[in-house]
């Protein structure tokens, strides 16, 4: 058989693989701990593993991280890695250190097929899904290289957000084992509250995640009405806001937190007026237990969109807060290394003719008679 990358197996998968080699389950647990807790990539390092198993593994398995193309460290401590995933594609991961936590933002696809108007990844188009090994390799590399860098024997990454490149719920079969590895006490041991899947609203998969691995959920909302959301998040045409909010309520029955986080990217003159804040209140208050996270837009030339002024963001936030909706304004991190939200571009061999898709719908801009802002 071809040698397999063990980074792609959750504990169940690894147990099944070991069984094929005629080994007992506890051997799989030992192996899993060596890989994920100790960051070992060489079977010879695994001193308490039977010599006979180490010999069986040689030639049949390997533990291989993604090649690092570049690493950038921001003045604020944020670190961005660009990983090579082959075929001319590269994906990005970002580590965001804070006083009480270390968060890793992980990619799930090379590019993204959803094509959100304000997202640099979306503008690149879609190349392919990452497999489980490629998703978990981002965490494996970041955790163990940061431990070395900070000379720490403790866990450095305390939170994972699936908010990098790609729509994780459109790569569900690879995502689920990766999430299980993050949560596994023999792996990264993160609580379900500290692992967040961010989705643009793939309703049937929200329902499946609720049954399979109900971690914290963030939903990219970005608009209070369907006509505007249709333009900003094209997936809305398939799963409109009312259906999405119903799925959020179903999800809350099993979620580890008692609220959904709604992400709302603040776009100057597009979705940031006080009237739109009122519409948002009407949409959400008393309907879904939620928090609103307002994200200052990170402009990139192809978007034709601009960041809302601070005053506008504050005024918008005040309407929400006054209505009783918990609202935060996200601090931008890693601005100087293009690691902020929506700026992850990587490198993608676009197979989707994204340019053609992008020109089809001009964003209706308030006060500009429906013209695209330039
Ligand atoms: S915001 Fe998320 S879902 Fe939308 S295009 Fe970007 S990566 Fe894809």
Automatic annotation (TrEMBL):
<protein>
    <recommendedName>
        <fullName>Dual-specificity RNA methyltransferase RlmN</fullName>
        <ecNumber>2.1.1.192</ecNumber>
    </recommendedName>
</protein>
<dbReference type="GO" id="GO:0002935">
    <property type="term" value="F:tRNA (adenine(37)-C2)-methyltransferase activity"/>
</dbReference>
<dbReference type="InterPro" id="IPR027492">
    <property type="entry name" value="RNA_MTrfase_RlmN"/>
</dbReference>
<dbReference type="GO" id="GO:0030488">
    <property type="term" value="P:tRNA methylation"/>
</dbReference>
<keyword id="KW-0963">Cytoplasm</keyword>
<keyword id="KW-0479">Metal-binding</keyword>
<dbReference type="GO" id="GO:0070040">
    <property type="term" value="F:rRNA (adenine(2503)-C2-)-methyltransferase activity"/>
</dbReference>
<dbReference type="InterPro" id="IPR040072">
    <property type="entry name" value="Methyltransferase_A"/>
</dbReference>
<dbReference type="InterPro" id="IPR058240">
    <property type="entry name" value="rSAM_sf"/>
</dbReference>
<feature type="binding site">
    <location>
        <begin position="220"/>
        <end position="222"/>
    </location>
    <ligand>
        <name>S-adenosyl-L-methionine</name>
    </ligand>
</feature>
<feature type="binding site">
    <location>
        <position position="298"/>
    </location>
    <ligand>
        <name>S-adenosyl-L-methionine</name>
    </ligand>
</feature>
<keyword id="KW-1015">Disulfide bond</keyword>
<keyword id="KW-0004">4Fe-4S</keyword>
<feature type="active site" description="Proton acceptor">
    <location>
        <position position="92"/>
    </location>
</feature>
<feature type="domain" description="Radical SAM core">
    <location>
        <begin position="98"/>
        <end position="336"/>
    </location>
</feature>
<keyword id="KW-0489">Methyltransferase</keyword>
<feature type="binding site">
    <location>
        <position position="198"/>
    </location>
    <ligand>
        <name>S-adenosyl-L-methionine</name>
    </ligand>
</feature>
<keyword id="KW-0698">rRNA processing</keyword>
<feature type="binding site">
    <location>
        <begin position="166"/>
        <end position="167"/>
    </location>
    <ligand>
        <name>S-adenosyl-L-methionine</name>
    </ligand>
</feature>
<keyword id="KW-0819">tRNA processing</keyword>
<feature type="binding site">
    <location>
        <position position="119"/>
    </location>
    <ligand>
        <name>[4Fe-4S] cluster</name>
    </ligand>
</feature>
<feature type="active site" description="S-methylcysteine intermediate">
    <location>
        <position position="341"/>
    </location>
</feature>
<dbReference type="GO" id="GO:0070475">
    <property type="term" value="P:rRNA base methylation"/>
</dbReference>
<keyword id="KW-0411">Iron-sulfur</keyword>
<dbReference type="GO" id="GO:0005737">
    <property type="term" value="C:cytoplasm"/>
</dbReference>
<dbReference type="InterPro" id="IPR007197">
    <property type="entry name" value="rSAM"/>
</dbReference>
<dbReference type="GO" id="GO:0000049">
    <property type="term" value="F:tRNA binding"/>
</dbReference>
<dbReference type="InterPro" id="IPR013785">
    <property type="entry name" value="Aldolase_TIM"/>
</dbReference>
<dbReference type="InterPro" id="IPR004383">
    <property type="entry name" value="rRNA_lsu_MTrfase_RlmN/Cfr"/>
</dbReference>
<keyword id="KW-0408">Iron</keyword>
<feature type="binding site">
    <location>
        <position position="112"/>
    </location>
    <ligand>
        <name>[4Fe-4S] cluster</name>
    </ligand>
</feature>
<dbReference type="GO" id="GO:0019843">
    <property type="term" value="F:rRNA binding"/>
</dbReference>
<keyword id="KW-0808">Transferase</keyword>
<dbReference type="Pfam" id="PF21016">
    <property type="entry name" value="RlmN_N"/>
</dbReference>
<keyword id="KW-0949">S-adenosyl-L-methionine</keyword>
<comment type="function">
    <text>Specifically methylates position 2 of adenine 2503 in 23S rRNA and position 2 of adenine 37 in tRNAs. m2A2503 modification seems to play a crucial role in the proofreading step occurring at the peptidyl transferase center and thus would serve to optimize ribosomal fidelity.</text>
</comment>
<dbReference type="InterPro" id="IPR048641">
    <property type="entry name" value="RlmN_N"/>
</dbReference>
<dbReference type="Pfam" id="PF04055">
    <property type="entry name" value="Radical_SAM"/>
</dbReference>
<dbReference type="GO" id="GO:0046872">
    <property type="term" value="F:metal ion binding"/>
</dbReference>
<dbReference type="GO" id="GO:0051539">
    <property type="term" value="F:4 iron, 4 sulfur cluster binding"/>
</dbReference>
<comment type="similarity">
    <text>Belongs to the radical SAM superfamily. RlmN family.</text>
</comment>
<feature type="binding site">
    <location>
        <position position="116"/>
    </location>
    <ligand>
        <name>[4Fe-4S] cluster</name>
    </ligand>
</feature>
């Amino acid at each position: 058989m071809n040698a397999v990358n063990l980074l792609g197996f959750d504990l169940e998968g690894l147990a099944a693989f070991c069984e094929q080699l005629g080994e007992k389950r506890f051997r799989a647990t030992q192996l899993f701990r060596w890989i994920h807790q100790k960051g070992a990539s060489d079977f010879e390092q695994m001193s308490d593993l039977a010599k006979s198993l180490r010999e069986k593994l040689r030639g049949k398995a390997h533990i291989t991280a993604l090649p690092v193309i570049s690493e950038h460290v921001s003045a604020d401590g944020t670190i961005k890695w660009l990983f090579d995933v082959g075929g001319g594609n590269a994906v990005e991961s970002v580590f965001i250190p804070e006083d009480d936590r270390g968060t890793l933002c992980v990619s799930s696809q090379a590019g993204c097929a959803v094509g959100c108007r304000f997202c640099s990844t979306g503008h690149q188009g879609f190349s392919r899904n990452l497999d489980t090994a490629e998703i978990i390799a981002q965490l494996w590399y970041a955790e163990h290289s940061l431990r070395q860098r900070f000379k720490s024997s403790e866990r450095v990454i305390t939170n994972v957000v699936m908010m990098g490149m790609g729509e994780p719920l459109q790569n569900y079969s690879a995502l689920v084992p990766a999430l299980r590895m993050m949560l596994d006490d023999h792996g990264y041991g993160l609580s379900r509250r500290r692992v967040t899947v961010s989705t643009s609203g793939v309703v049937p998969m929200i329902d499946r995640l609720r049954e399979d691995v109900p971690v914290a959920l963030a939903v990219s909302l970005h608009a209070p009405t369907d006509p505007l959301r249709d333009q900003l998040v094209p997936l809305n045409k398939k799963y409109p806001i009312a259906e999405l909010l119903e799925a959020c309520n179903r999800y809350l029955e099993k979620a580890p937190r008692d609220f959904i986080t709604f992400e709302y990217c603040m776009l100057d003159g597009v979705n940031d007026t006080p009237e739109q804040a009122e519409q948002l209140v009407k949409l959400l208050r008393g309907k879904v237990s939620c928090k609103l996270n307002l994200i200052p837009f990170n402009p990139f030339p192809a978007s034709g969109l601009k960041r809302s002024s601070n005053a506008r963001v504050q005024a918008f936030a005040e309407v929400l807060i006054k209505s009783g909706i918990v609202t935060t304004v996200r601090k931008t991190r890693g601005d100087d290394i293009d690691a902020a939200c929506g700026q992850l571009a990587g490198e993608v061999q676009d197979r989707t003719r994204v340019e053609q898709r992008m020109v089809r719908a001009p964003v209706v801009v308030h006060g500009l008679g429906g013209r695209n802002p330039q």
